[in-house]
Every structure is written in C-alpha cells, then in structure tokens.
Design a protein that fits this description.
Structural class: alpha+beta
Radius of gyration: 19 Å
Helix content: 40-55%
Shape: globular
Oligomer: single chain
Strand content: 15-25%
Distance between the termini: 44 Å
Largest sheet: 6 strands, mixed
Order of helices and strands: EEEHHEHHHEEEHHHHEEHE
C-alpha cells in the first residue's frame, strides 16, 4: 500500500534545508583542504505528492535573482532525477509532483541547489514513512548535487542538512565535518551581483589553471590552508578583527585564481569602506555573492545600506 500524504497536510516545516555562505575555502575545498562554512537562517522546503499518472511535475516557487531558475533549469531537473533515483523513487512507475518553496533567495553562492535536493530528500523520507538518518539525507543531497556541479565538494549539502558553522574537509572516503562553537555571534551582510555563473564551468577553469602550473597552485593552496587554520582559531576566540583580515586575504587568493570579477570586487571595496572589518566573494564567483563581516548591529546596518546602492539584492544574517 502506498503511503500518501495530501498536499494540505504535508509537513513542509520538516523539510527545511538551509542556504550557506563560505567563510573560507571556495574552490580550494575541492582539493581536500579544510573550509569553514556557515548556514544561513533562510531555507528551501519541499512538498511531495504521488500522482496516478507516471512522470515528474515540478513547481518551483522559490524566490530567485533574475534568470537564475531559467539558467539552472536543466541542471535542476537532472539533480532532482539523481536524488529520486538514489532514494529508489521511480517516476516511470508512479508520478511525483514536487512543489519547492521557502524564503531562501536562489543566487549563485548561497547553496540553493543543495538546499533544493536536501529538502527533496527530506520530503521523500516523510512521504514514504522512512526513517532516514541525517547522514543518509546528506548522502542523497550529495548525489543530487552532481546534477548541478558535476563533482561537488559536498560542502553545500552538508551545510544544508546540518546547519550551524562547520569545518568541512573532503577525503578519499566520507567527508569530515564538525560543528564549531562560536565565542561570539558572527554578523554578516551578503549581497548579490545579480550574475548567475555555472559552478561546473568555473570549477573546470580552476582545474585547468592548476594543471597548467602545478607549482603555482601548490604554493597558493599552501598559503590558503594556513589562512584557514588561523581563521578557525579566530572564530573560536571571537576575534572579529583577525577574522576580517583573513577574509580580505582569502579574497586576494580567489582573485589570483581568477574567480572574482569587477562586480564582486566593487561590492567588497564598498563594504570595507562602509565599516566592514572584512569582505570577500563567497561561493562560485564570477558573479554570485560577496559577504562582509560586521561585528555590531550598527555596522551591519550601515554596510547593508551602502551595498543596497550597488547591489540588486542585499541580506543580513548571523552565524550563532
């Protein structure tokens, strides 16, 4: 007997999957060095119902920057298919209708694709009355992320699943991650360039640069690894000035990787001028998001106001 839940009674609040912002480590994390990532409070949710007619219907009500969903549509369908296949749901045998919602605004760098597939995994878990563990939900999210990213690092789906501030590191086997305890809340402003980049393409470009000059890349990743360890210590000690300086330095390393762009650099400069103690691009780059570290509520508001004059979307959040 199929276990069916009507749309009106489906507990979407149990399907929340969070967005994320990378404090340290985008692109470098692919090469098995640590990264620090914070989940934002905004989330994606998913309603699932089985239908009489086989096939897949997707209703995407997530807020998004202009053209994000259009550009990501094919990747998104592949990601959904991969997630359902991993979980043993065959839409050729019975139809599936999915409705995605929530308050996470889809933009390059916020982990929207991971939040989507993790929320889907949670919805399957509920609709089929399974008892999947959080690790199993995370694993399903990782499989789904392959539709968007080709070879995902795993950092986005892990943040989407578990929330909090995480130290994350890929290995030959399962990734290692642990939640960090913060000495003080970390106030963040993040802003969108309005540009949607292809993560697969940008990651591929970085790989090509690495393979063209292995010595240069080894030196850069060595400097980054030292920076990340210092950043972790600053987080644990609540040293916002140190954390900000390290974010600035991480941005320079990402500029050297050629994954920043003028729009990101302009927002970073504006945030620092408005009082942020540190600012950097976050995520894929070549568009997408930047983040600024704002130690007080007053500075957070001032930086947000300054960025609103330049960026199409600006948000405030706190890692706690």
């Amino acid at each position: 007997v199929n276990f069916l839940i009507t749309m009106t009674s489906f507990p979407v609040d149990q399907t929340h999957a969070f967005g994320k912002l990378i404090l340290f480590g985008e692109h470098f994390v692919v090469y098995k060095v640590p990264a620090l990532v914070g989940a934002v409070s905004a989330y994606t949710n998913c309603k699932l119902e089985y239908t009489a007619e086989p096939g897949l219907e997707v209703i995407d009500n997530r807020p998004a920057v202009p053209f994000y969903k259009e550009k990501k549509m094919e990747e998104g369908i592949e990601a959904i298919d991969l997630t359902l296949t991993h979980l043993g749901v065959d839409t050729k045998k019975r139809g599936v209708k999915l409705t995605f919602g929530g308050d996470l605004c889809c933009a390059s760098g916020i982990g929207a694709s991971a939040a989507q597939v993790v929320s889907l995994a949670r919805a399957v878990n509920i609709a089929d009355s399974r008892s999947l563990s959080e690790d199993e939900i995370n694993a399903a999210g990782y499989e789904g992320e392959k539709g968007y990213h080709g070879t995902p690092s795993g950092i986005d789906n892990t943040a989407a699943t578990f929330g909090g501030l995480l130290r994350f590191q890929r290995t030959e086997g399962a990734p290692i991650f642990d939640k960090k305890t913060l000495a003080t809340p970390i106030r963040i402003v993040y802003a969108s360039t309005g540009i949607t980049a292809s993560t697969t393409e940008v990651v591929s470009d970085v790989r090509a640069k690495k393979e063209a000059d292995e010595a240069w890349f080894a030196d850069l990743i060595g400097k980054y690894t030292d920076l990340c360890e210092q950043g972790q210590k600053a987080v644990e000690e609540g040293d916002m000035d140190k954390l900000g300086k390290l974010m600035n330095l991480n941005h320079e390393y990402l500029q050297e990787l050629t994954v920043s762009c003028k729009e990101l650099d302009d927002l970073v400069v504006a945030a620092r001028a408005a009082g942020a103690v540190g600012a950097k691009m976050s995520g894929t780059g070549r568009g997408g998001l930047m983040i600024a570290l704002t130690p007080t509520e007053e500075i957070q508001n001032e930086v947000a106001s300054a960025l609103e004059k330049l960026a199409p979307q600006v948000w405030k959040t706190t890692f706690a």
